[in-house]
Specification:
Length: about 425
């Protein structure tokens, strides 16, 4: 035989199978159902599977019946791959079905060649490598289309979920009816246990919390995210009766910059308020650091958060003289004041907390008193001091020089006193 004769004989052989196209597709469909459990779940219906088999076999036969063809039409496998991706069919099972049925197709060719006799069996064997190459080409086309469809769907899903998160954080104008619908579309409960996370993007184009989604799924935590200029915002739905410590640990492990976390909240229509807590928590961290901070939901925190400038002025009026001291003196006096308040005014208990003598505590408190607006036996002065300490403890940026105006003279003496004995 000449080099062209095998392809001519195979072309005639393929034409003989064309008249049996429906029967071959039906046999392939039945073989798929018998061999692969997934297809028995009827995600891919009988008519759908038969049509897919028929189209793919038709494309192969069309290629084989044209001995001059040097190109392969991959429309069939590409359409199949795309459709199976949208049906959530597992790719390994789809490829397995392809392998099983291509082997069946080869057996049909071989049976037909033996029946034809003469030089046809040898011609088919001479073309075997080309035919089996088709199996690889078709499988690759199917795989590429499947993955492309999955990627497109993932992008569409991310966009849709991003838009839903945008609606949640849109502000007080969001009504409960629309939030119910958003919750349904996100797969979240309307009432549950939620956190808002906001993470700055240290490097443009890089995810600020790489690997976090995988960690959250392991904890049974649902999430939806929205990218914003310089940051990403996520709403997390936590399982009931599970501590959120594991969630915070996962966030810390993934953080690459400043990350703020809201207090736990119970209704999705409170997301905008929670976002404000998360944003302030992130902004209170030192620029350039990698850290995670969660604010407590206290009346003072909400008051300060909503009136930061007013709080700053109040802190300056109460602690301005102390904040103007050298850092070591300032830190010592503020730590002593916190311990004294925690000890309900007991110098002995405060000394135990600070690992120093009670007389040292008394000395420091007398020194602190020089910078306050009145004596420490005045309940109003104690209340002011407590508020100011809570404010700078919650919002450390109030201690930074660029947040604190120049210190004013205290009515009770603005010069620093002697160092601790």
């Amino acid at each position: 035989m000449t080099t062209t004769e095998p392809r001519l004989l195979v072309a005639e052989l393929a034409k003989s199978l064309t008249v049996r196209l429906d029967a071959i597709a039906a046999a392939m469909s039945q073989q798929t159902y018998d061999s692969i459990e997934f297809y028995r779940s009827m995600v891919v219906g009988p008519e759908d599977l038969h049509a897919s088999m028929r189209v793919n076999v038709a494309y192969i036969l069309k290629h084989l019946t044209d001995p001059t063809s040097s190109t392969v039409d991959l429309t069939g496998p590409a359409d199949t791959g795309r459709k199976r991706a949208l049906q959530n069919a597992p790719l390994p099972e789809v490829l397995r079905a392809y392998r099983i049925n291509f082997r069946y197709f080869w057996e049909q060719l071989l049976d037909a060649a033996r029946e034809a006799g003469g030089d046809v069996p040898d011609a088919l064997l001479d073309s075997a490598s080309h035919i089996w190459e088709l199996a690889d080409v078709y499988s690759s086309a199917l795989t590429d289309a499947y993955r492309e469809a999955c990627a497109e769907r993932m992008v569409e899903t991310d966009r849709r979920r991003s838009a839903l998160v945008s609606e949640l954080i849109g502000g007080p104008s969001v009504n409960s009816d629309s939030v119910w619908e958003v919750a349904r579309m996100l797969g979240f409960p309307f009432q549950g246990r939620f956190l808002v996370v906001t993470a700055e993007v240290p490097v443009s184009g890089e995810p600020p919390l790489p690997g976090l989604d995988r960690g959250l799924r392991a904890l049974g935590v649902g999430s939806a995210w929205r990218a914003q200029p310089g940051s990403e915002v996520g709403v997390l739905s936590c399982p009931p009766r599970r501590q959120v410590d594991g969630v915070l640990d996962a966030v810390r492990a993934a953080a690459t910059g400043r990350v703020g976390v809201s207090p736990l909240y119970e209704r999705l229509d409170q997301t905008n308020r929670a976002l404000q807590y998360a944003q302030v928590a992130a902004e209170s961290l030192t620029v350039g650091t990698t850290a995670v901070r969660q604010l407590d939901d206290t009346p003072l925190t909400e008051l300060v958060m909503n009136n930061l400038e007013t709080t700053q002025r109040a802190v300056q009026r109460i602690l301005g003289g102390v904040l103007s001291l050298p850092e070591e003196d300032r830190t010592t006096l503020l730590a002593t004041a916190r311990a004294w308040l925690e000890a309900h005014g007991s110098a002995a208990e405060a000394g135990r907390l600070l690992f120093c003598h009670q007389n040292t505590v008394r000395y420091r408190m007398h020194r602190l008193e020089e910078f306050l607006r009145g004596p420490m036996d005045d309940p109003k002065i104690v209340a002011e001091l407590s508020m100011a300490l809570d404010a700078v403890g919650t919002f450390p940026m109030l201690l930074q020089s660029n947040h604190v105006p120049a210190a004013r003279s205290s009515t009770r003496g603005s010069q620093p006193g002697p160092r601790d004995p």
